[in-house]
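Lecture notes, continued. The same structure-token format from the folding unit now serves as the input rather than the output. Read the line below as a description of shape only.
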């Protein structure tokens, strides 16, 4: 007798399941990372006896390696049949590597662990973002990336709190906290391995971001019929993102400024938690806003918030100002983090999204090192207000260039 089988899971349902599961994976990954990261500077300098210069070199080398790998594995993700294998390998490497910092007896041991951790991030980031793009409906990509960022920031809120509780309960035992970070790392890999599925890639599923008049942004500057190639608009957008990143230095400088404004050593980590709470609260609304009013206007609004925040830190004079500015700064992340990725997905051909996300993440990573070096040099030479105003000025310039890019209109056919 033939029995009726259970209906197969629909493709949209599988896609949204991917988005939610990848959000949960991001939560546990950031929980694991943030159990370690806030404690690492003190561990490297106070316990292992390294200088701040050595600490900076460790972080700079790790992030630079990650940026290069994002480009390489973004390209590879488009050549493979599925995204999931690279995503799984990347998360597994990071989750396995991080707890080994508990065994570090010298600064170069920490460097090795950080390189492995960031290598895993470099392997997974572009394929993961491409998988989210493939999974979510085009008209809801802002919401999908906003959801992923919300989970990510929730983990970043919980991680330092868990670390603080463990440090308090076990007598400031750095190594024990680092070792216990293996638990959420293992959970994230199990969720990813068991619940995420690849979805088909279709060459015609792009959802171009539109200008107010209805013109498709991705149609501007398209000079080739090859659906695997980037349009001029996408290349220009990536260049503008790189420019913005040159003014977007490490948030460590804002924490340093908060200390100058009077926040105590105990209050500074809590300011970091407040920032992540603000990010978590605004990521989903920011993504939904970009689905409704457009990606570019939302990004421009976020970059303007960034410029105002940096200008605010330049002129701030009290601890109250610092607390308020960290809350406003979180709005910048909510408006831009997911939306910038959604715009990449809108502009990139479906068959080249891995490569597009590789270049996008690579541009941000490669710009981060000179941004922080420049901020530090200007800060030391001319003072904090000048350095912070420089960052605000670069953000304002990038916002104006993005407005100019989306304001272009193609010439009518037959003219010229």
């Amino acid at each position: 007798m033939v029995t009726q089988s259970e209906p197969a899971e629909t493709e949209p349902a599988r896609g949204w399941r991917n988005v939610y599961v990848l959000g949960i994976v991001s939560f546990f990954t950031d929980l694991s990372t943030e159990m370690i990261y806030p404690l690492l500077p003190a561990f490297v300098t106070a316990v292992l006896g390294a200088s701040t210069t050595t600490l900076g070199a460790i972080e700079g080398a790790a992030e630079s390696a990650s940026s290069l790998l994002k480009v390489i594995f973004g390209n590879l993700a488009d050549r493979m049949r599925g995204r999931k294998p690279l995503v799984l390998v990347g998360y597994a490497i990071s989750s396995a590597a991080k707890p080994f910092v508990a065994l570090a007896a010298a600064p170069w041991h920490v460097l090795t662990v950080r390189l492995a951790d960031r290598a895993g991030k470099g392997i997974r980031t572009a394929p993961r973002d491409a998988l989210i793009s493939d999974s979510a409906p085009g008209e809801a990509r802002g919401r999908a990336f906003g959801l992923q960022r919300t989970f990510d920031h929730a983990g970043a809120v919980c991680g330092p709190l868990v670390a603080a509780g463990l440090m308090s309960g076990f007598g400031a035992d750095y190594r024990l906290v680092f070792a216990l970070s293996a638990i959420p790392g293992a959970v994230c890999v199990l969720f990813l391995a068991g619940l995420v599925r690849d979805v088909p890639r279709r060459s015609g599923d792009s959802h171009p971001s539109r200008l107010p008049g209805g013109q498709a942004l991705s149609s501007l500057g398209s000079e080739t019929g090859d659906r695997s190639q980037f349009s001029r608009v996408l290349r220009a957008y990536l260049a503008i993102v790189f420019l913005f990143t040159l003014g977007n230095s490490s948030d460590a400088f804002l924490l340093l400024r908060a200390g100058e404004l009077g926040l105590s050593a105990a209050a500074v980590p809590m300011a970091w938690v407040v920032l992540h709470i603000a990010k978590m609260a605004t990521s989903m609304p920011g993504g939904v806003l970009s689905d409704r009013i457009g990606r570019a206007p939302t990004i421009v609004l976020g970059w303007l918030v960034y410029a105002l925040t940096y200008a605010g830190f330049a002129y701030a004079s009290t601890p109250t100002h610092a607390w308020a500015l960290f809350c406003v700064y979180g709005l910048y992340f909510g408006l831009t983090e997911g939306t910038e990725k959604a715009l990449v997905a809108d502009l990139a051909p479906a068959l080249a999204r891995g490569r597009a996300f590789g270049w996008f993440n690579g541009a941000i990573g490669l710009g981060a090192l000179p941004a922080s070096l420049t901020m530090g040099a200007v800060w030391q030479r001319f003072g904090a207000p000048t350095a912070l105003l420089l960052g605000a000025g670069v953000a304002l310039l990038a916002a104006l260039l993005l407005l100019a890019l989306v304001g272009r209109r193609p010439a009518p056919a037959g003219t010229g």
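Point for the exam: Residues 11-201 form a domain with the Growth Hormone; Chain: A; fold (CATH 1.20.1250.20).
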